[in-house]
């Protein structure tokens, strides 16, 4: 008999989702698959050591039969046939209502990077999802305003994103040990909502983050197969889109789709987590892998075009959806000129993605939905997607995917200061329980903090000389940190955020994820 215990603080309406039956289901997932997850995390370290020794990465020779084989994933399920506009955001009641009312085709209900693992968010997010699925979600703000789901027209398809394999959930113990956060998030959602979604003509769908290869996708397939059997769901009804946001995964796209099998629906291309992974994977590889200012690394850089072209080509060759990256701009109603510049960049970005063959893309704010829709409407017309658009000529080489040295841009003091300030501001909010933070007109999540602190670490360890002539040293970074913190002034959790940033940006050995030491600072 599996022992499952909740050790987190009381959360309003927790009893609706943390039922004995739901907890038993999650405990069963942990008991069956927790050890396999642990082994896969250990394998990540071994794989990185191999890549570091070779100073390059290539496709796996042992999976050539998959890449050369004639196979396709199942057709997109109901609610995921047309995905031209997807809105992302945390499972916070007000933001969830706004996302569901905004006219997007899909709501990525984020339990990962736009969330924080405070127990109130973990449990509260499941309550929000339960209400959203049943169309009963409502919220009353402190100023008396009421937020309710619209009754006219279709609402977006709900697609939660659980935490990555690496994150634990210390508030839920299975046989005395913290459960795997991903199994908690996915398990609770499936138990309460899978059949309800199917009854409503949709289905239990997921976005799966942070994977580094096909063996990790295969574990998700086992979890989904087992869940379908236990919950008596039709085989293959649980479907998932995988984020290709690590450099090892970029070399296993086809293998990952094949491994997820009947549950596969598509792949997504991001930016910050992908660049974070490039730094993390090749942190010992020397100056040719040192990036310029992160703001200079756009999706039009040669290595990023190779990555996105490869993703679209692989997806359409295998019948899977290709979904583009997030437009993080927050429209401003105060500065019309700045607002138009921001919206113009979003329009250009979405137009490029639609023209490159993507089937849809992400936005972070409801006001960006019309811009994204207009860009994809111009290419798609009445078609729901571009799955019929093949790109057989796209076969990027490892050298093209790893052409960090070919990324245009400089390394500047402004870039260093931006990394420090934005990361510290974000971490302060994160420690307070807010994972989606508006900073300088952009909606930032944990990926922004990861690339920011990683770039600082990389510049220090490679003694990068900035365009101003200064060499990036630990002493310089600490000086910049002190100046930026002083400029920020009063901010809750600022001291802890500063200490955490210095810990993950200036450590001798690179911390794999800043959210792991950050989680140790979470109270409640």
Mean pLDDT: 96
Largest sheet, strands/sense/barrel: 8 strands, parallel
The CATH architecture name of the largest domain reads Alpha-Beta Barrel
Please give the domain count: 2
The CATH class of the largest domain is Alpha Beta
- Number of discrete helical segments: 18
* Low-confidence regions: none
- Radius of gyration over all CA atoms, rounded: 22 Å
Q: Decide which structural class fits the backbone.
A: alpha/beta
- Report how far the terminal alpha carbons are from each other: 28 Å
Fourth-level CATH superfamily of the largest domain: Malate synthase, domain 3
Strand content: 5-15%
The best one-word shape is: globular
Helix content: 40-55%
CATH T-level topology of the largest domain: TIM Barrel
Strand order of the largest sheet: 6-3-2-13-12-11-10-9
Strand tally is: 15
State the gist of this model:
46% of the residues lie in helices and 13% in strands.
Structural account:
The protein has about 525 residues and is α/β, with parallel strands linked by helices. It has two domains: about 375 residues, Malate synthase, domain 3 (TIM Barrel, Alpha-Beta Barrel); about 110 residues, Up-down Bundle (Malate Synthase G, Chain: A, Domain 4), CATH 1.20.1220.12. It has 18 helices and 15 strands. The chain has an eight-stranded parallel beta sheet. The protein has a three-stranded antiparallel beta sheet with strand order 1-7-8. Helix 4 packs parallel to helix 5. The radius of gyration is 22 Å and the shape is globular.
């Amino acid at each position: 008999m599996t022992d499952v215990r909740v050790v987190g603080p009381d959360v309003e309406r927790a009893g609706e989702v943390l039922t004995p039956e739901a907890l038993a289901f999650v405990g069963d997932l942990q008991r069956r698959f927790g050890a396999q997850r642990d082994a896969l995390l250990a394998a990540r370290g071994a794989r990185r050591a191999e890549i570091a020794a070779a100073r390059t990465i290539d496709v796996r020779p042992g999976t050539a039969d998959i890449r050369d084989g004639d196979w396709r994933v199942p057709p997109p399920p109901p609610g995921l046939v047309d995905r031209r506009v997807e809105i992302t955001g945390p499972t916070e009641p007000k933001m969830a209502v706004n996302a569901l009312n905004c006219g997007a085709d899909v709501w990525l209900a984020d339990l990962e990077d736009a969330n924080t693992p405070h127990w109130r968010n973990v449990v509260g997010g499941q309550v929000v999802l339960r209400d959203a699925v049943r169309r009963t979600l409502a919220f009353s703000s402190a100023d008396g305003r009421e937020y309710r789901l619209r009754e006219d027209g279709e609402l977006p398809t709900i697609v939660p994103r659980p935490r990555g394999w690496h994150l634990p959930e210390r508030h839920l113990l299975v046989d005395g040990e913290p459960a795997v956060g991903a199994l908690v998030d996915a398990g609770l959602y499936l138990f309460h909502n899978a059949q309800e979604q199917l009854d409503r003509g949709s289905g239990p769908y997921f976005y799966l983050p942070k994977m580094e290869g096909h063996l990790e996708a295969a574990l998700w397939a086992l979890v989904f197969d087992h869940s379908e059997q236990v919950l008596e769901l039709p085989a293959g009804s649980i479907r998932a889109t995988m984020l290709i946001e690590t450099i090892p995964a970029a070399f296993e796209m086809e293998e990952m789709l094949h491994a997820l099998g009947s549950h596969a629906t598509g792949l997504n291309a991001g930016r910050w987590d992908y660049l974070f992974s490039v730094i993390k994977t090749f942190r010992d590889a020397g100056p040719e892998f040192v990036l310029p200012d992160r703001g200079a690394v756009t999706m039009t850089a040669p290595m990023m075009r190779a990555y996105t072209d490869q993703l679209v080509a692989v997806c359409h060759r295998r019948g899977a959806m290709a979904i583009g990256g997030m437009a993080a701009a927050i429209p401003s109603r105060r500065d019309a000129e700045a607002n138009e510049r921001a919206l113009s960049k979003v329009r250009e970005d979405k137009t490029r993605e639609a023209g490159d063959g993507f089937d849809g893309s992400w936005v972070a704010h409801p006001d960006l939905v019309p811009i994204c829709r207009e860009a994809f409407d111009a290419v798609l017309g009445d078609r729901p997607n571009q799955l019929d658009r093949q790109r057989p000529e796209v076969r990027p080489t490892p050298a093209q995917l790893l052409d960090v040295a070919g990324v245009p841009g400089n390394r500047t003091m402004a870039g260093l200061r931006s990394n420090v300030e934005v990361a510290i501001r974000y971490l302060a909010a994160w420690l307070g329980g807010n994972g989606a933070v508006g900073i300088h007109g952009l909606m930032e999540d944990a990926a922004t903090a990861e690339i920011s602190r990683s770039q600082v670490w990389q510049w220090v360890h490679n003694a990068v000389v900035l365009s101003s002539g200064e060499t990036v040293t630990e002493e310089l970074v600490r000086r910049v940190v002190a100046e930026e913190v002083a400029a920020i002034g009063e901010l809750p959790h600022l001291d802890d955020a500063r200490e955490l940033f210095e810990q993950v940006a200036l450590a001798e050995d690179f911390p794999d994820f800043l959210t792991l030491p950050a989680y140790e600072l979470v109270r409640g």
